[in-house]
Amino acid sequence: MKGGNNMRKRILASAAALLITLSGALIATGTPAQAASAECSAPFWSLGTRGCTTGTISAHPSGRYIDVTYWGCRDTRWKVWDTGTGVTVASGRTPSGGHMTRRIGGLYGSYKAQISMACWKDRIRIDNT
Q1: What keywords are assigned to this protein (predicted)?
Q2: Of the candidates 81, 111, 86, 113, which has an alpha carbon nearest to the alpha carbon of residue 100?
Q3: pLDDT band at 126 (very low <50, low <70, confident <90, very high)
Q4: Fewest CB within 10 angstroms: 31, 51, 57, 107, which?
């Protein structure tokens, strides 16, 4: 029995070391440096101004940009802002044809996008891929 206990202790120690190593690797590969995207769609029903706001993403870690893509009605207002400073980094109205893609460069923080005065199902997406 004594030999079996030693073997069991070695297996448990090896398993614990493996778990510690794996958890360290997971922490080291955190999400901010990874590709990310966030999007939202304007709702069917809305009290007041119809629109939506995306979740937050970080700028591309080496390229320092985010891409904005919009699908929907013409003349929907959109903006992208830095969530840390509150500064709007890009804004405008969507073009005729209902689709727009734009790259915003020179970015270092975290960002959200918003559409307002939107049609039902208008959609905006931001990504750093």
Answers
A1: Signal
A2: 113
A3: very high
A4: 31
